[in-house]
Amino acid sequence: EEIDKSSLLDLTEDMVKELVPKVGQRSKFMSELKKLKILNSNEKLNFDELLSAPDKYEDTVIGTNHMSEIDISNAEFLFVNEFGSNVGSQNNNSEIPEVAKIDILRSKSPYETYDKVEISIKNKLLKFHDGQMVLDYYNSAGCLNEAMRNKLCSVIIKDELVQNDNCKKISRARFITLAKGIEELFTSETQYTYFIPYTKEGNSVSPNRGKLYDKYCNIKRDIHKISLKPKLAIVKDISIGLNEKDFEESLNWLKHNTNPDNQLLQFWKETASYRLNKERDINCLTKYPGLSKPVGHLLIDIDFEELYPNKGMSLFNKFDFFKQKLKIYIQRNKISFGAKDTILKNELMNPRIPGNNLTKLSNHNANELKTIQSDKVEKAFNYGLTVQPYIVFIGSDEENYTDCFTVVNDTHYKLETPVKALDICFKSFHTFNLKYPPEAEQICMPKCFLCFEQFMAISHLMIHLNIFHNVNNIIEFKCLELNCFRSFSNLNSFKKHLNDHPINLICNNSDKAVNTYCELIPPDVSNIPSNSNILINVNQNIESIDDIKKQIYQNSIALISKWYSYSGLPRKTVQQLIDDLLEFNSMFLSILKEKISRVISLCNDDNIGNELSQIKDIILNFGSPFESMQTEYLRLQTLDEQGLLVRPEEVSIGYRLNDRLCNGRVVLEPRADKISVIPLRLVFKKFLEHSNMFEIILNYISYLKTTESELISSFIQSQLWKEKLRINQNKIILPLFLYFDDFEVNNPLGSHAGSQKLGAVYVSLSCLPPELSSSLNNIFLASLFKSDDKKYYGNRIIFYNLITELNYLEETGITITIKNVSHQIYFSLGLILGDNLGLHSILGFSENFIARYPCRFCKCSKTECHSQLKQNDNCLRNLNNYNADVITNDSSLTGIKEMCTWNDVHSFSVVNNFSVDIMHDLLEGVFKYDLALILNHLIYYSKYISLENLNNRIETFNYGPVDIRNRPTLITEDNLKRQKTIKMTASEMLCFSRYLGLIIGDLIPSSSQAWSLYLLLKQILDITLSKSVRPGDAILLKTLISDHHELYLKLFNVHLKPKHHHMVHYPFIIEKSGPLSLFWSMRFEAKHKELKDTANSITSRKNIVYTLSLKQQLQLAFILSSPKSDVYTIPIKIGKIIKLPQHKLEMYNTKTQFVSIPFNCISDKSMFVTWVNIKGTMYNTKNMSIIINVSDEDNLLPTFGLIKSIFITDNNKPYAIVKLFITNYFDEHYQAFNVSFNHVTDFSCVSLEDIGNINPTHHVVLSNDMNN
Predict the structure, then answer these.
(1) In the chain, N or C: fewer CB atoms in 10 Å?
(2) Which SMART domains does the entry mention (predicted)?
């Protein structure tokens, strides 16, 4: 009928009768059409002059894509309704253009004369037509929907910014006032939906949130966009203004032609700026055949001149000066060149052929060039390296050569002189952006004999020994220089020896790279993964033979417990390792013992004879370190005696007939079915008494109790736990999380899949600090059984022993002794965790999610769940209706299959088990459904982007140093069209959803409703993944989920899925239990991998349950074997120690703002490193940015800094020198902050331990030169 948007709004009832003949459908259509007409009856603002302002400008961003062009037809909608993001212009004095002010003032109503402090929200709304619409809608409907909330926020923020004409900013206090005013005017709304202020308590941080704040950010974004005028780039960037279309013709010629030479050189020079910015790598040799020509070295000269103007002749101009400096350097440092030392020094001191001083002498003929190349390629391949550019001289010997070649890949450039060959070789590294080869690395630096780290100077090594290895405790100082085996008993002698030591320059590819890992505090076994090196305790002050025996015995136990802790190492292999070690010892110790005996018989000195006899006894003990542990029975018995091993208990739960072959016949015999149960009372006693664990827990609990804040970051601060503590206020009670899940130990696609499916129950202490709670070492196995047994015997029998143990821990508790002081500790079950299927199966709810009552939190029917936007508090399950439903005993009417057996735990009630799993609900559920529908809509319906383009962007996007390992997989057409789901793991989906706005946001218009649904999802994800929450976050989340569900139903015309329904309970669960990220399944799923690795390393499945349980307890024994007093204090780990150039240190000293303590990068005893790991969070200098300030007082935006260098002070404190960004605004369309470099402040020095619990991020430069 050719009905477009304008004609749709003009349809009359008679016209609709012809289009929609059925009365019922016509009634619904007319109702929706009426609403649409109301929404479009808004009086348009005049934005013609506003849009004429320049919209091209330079800016930068922390995570986005380029901005969409302003659509003139929707200009007033963009300004009024689409402003909402974190904004702060590049300089704080930016103003709205005069034309913009005029147009905004024109739109004011006659009520515009007022005192802005006393003006009410209602008067603000009456000034604008949109505001009047909001009031009219509320008076008729009694509440506000998403569209009305957006209009409300737009009117208020626009009016505030017009009043604050001088600063264009709204203070935090003003936001709070406005939010409260909205709550007073609209009784159905709450202030937390509109603004939640930034909060920080210790390391717990929660940012500004709310619809008013989002709208403010969006408006500031657009003001920033239209007010910025084109200006010269402050920082030189050769990528600005480069467009492939401008060079397309020249580039195509270069890709397919090589002649004539003059045209080749001309086009090469014309395209230099573009190529060096976009295609600066070794692949240019294959892309541009001209580089393979004999004149290709001229092209390298052109590119080098483009990169470094007026530097092309530096080598030739300064060669004589460099030669003299090199002579002095060699003589001063006594440098040796090995076998060619004499020849090379003669050439350097008295060169016979001009310019051969710095080149490597080779005697080859022209026929050997290909052989040389193939040999180099093969050698490099063997060492995992690549062949970098090198020089070859052709001649009869080392003193007479005729030709010089520079070789780049398979291309040989013939040059006139050795210096020119060296010149081209050097320039090729820069023009092709290559790394220097290992032969060119200086390895004459002093090396630490403890951690093998290298240093640029001997003084740096001394500082390193003093800071990292406590020089006072070092008994022997060893020299690691080539062919030097001396050692010294004191530091001064060692230092003097190094100063007098000749320096050797060696070029040997077989030398392995030095260890680049160092720790400020020696590593502890509790934090070492099972494949790490064992910590052997060596006491240097051993005097007697008995002490030696004791030490060997203790180290033997440590070694055995380490071997047993390997997940992928079968227990039978430990016996083989011990046998091999004993055989190895006996081979040479017997010879050594005989020689010592012979020397003793010939020795006339009794003192020497006695010393040799003691050495002989030591050798005898060392030869049999496992004398008392030669069998596995004895080894496990030893671990028992040492108090390290808590054996799993096998519990018989019943009998079933089992077939067995007897005398050639199959007979049926009763077989006991057993499960493994771990005595938790013993596990917790040993765990809390070990090292400093109990002290850490008490300190953390005390810190949380003394911090009076609405910020919740632990389960201990939740309402649910506080209610349990009120009953027992005088006891030390620790909360427990219990997790259940099934997993497959066999090949899930094999013929035996499912036959050995196991159910595992883990427990963890929910009162641990965040850095310890995420460690797999602190998640304990509680019970293990076959899933078939649970189905056969039921929950009550399977979990009876575990429930009994939990009641014992709650009523009787355990007694632990810390520093000779006894403490009585009790435990209480806080929450039972798991995915939806696992929880429903063990809690007694229906496992069929399409059942009539599929929810464990409420009694809403399936039909209600399909369209429910908010939680119905009247339908929540409580103790009364739960007991009534159990009596009814009909799951089709109640959703309950059986009485929950976990109700037998004294302080636990299933109706108060407020836990959800956002990993399965969101990342492996809602996001897979929703993003598939969203992308399907954007690709096949709206046609904003093609699937091929999407996959190309997924492949080439810069995921940064944090998320590169979780980069998403490619999406297939079958996923979107037929399956309507996206196949990704939870980690991949988290990465994909986080960066989708940056990947394709520039192609999607802001008016797309499908994109609006993604933005709502992203905001929901941000809150649910937060490590700390406030009460207001739950209220805001409730609004976001309601808006999401409403838009989802409207867009796709499908009902909500069960996982969508779980989302409506999220705000309620946050209020009761705290942040949802505290009890998701991600870390527990990782715990499964240890059991799976063990199962895959063995072939027997006879008693797989006990085998895996014992292996887990042996891993715990290894953790408990550490004798250190600070095992659970997480050390700061650092990467390779590096030396910065002097000019860079001087620049840091003069151009750095120090936030707290000022440092001198040259004179202070600080050490620069490549990376640092603080409590599991990695910081490095590879395009990593951190948040310096979460909320600036002026514009309420975070401040970001790009990490340029990291250093450690002499008191082991990590600091970062960062290049500050100016946060311009938060772009809601891309879900990222737009930033630009701060050219007023050069650098800032911040403490990495004080920046809070917000993970580092990275900045992305988008295709339109925006930085996000």
Answers:
(1) N
(2) ZnF_C2H2
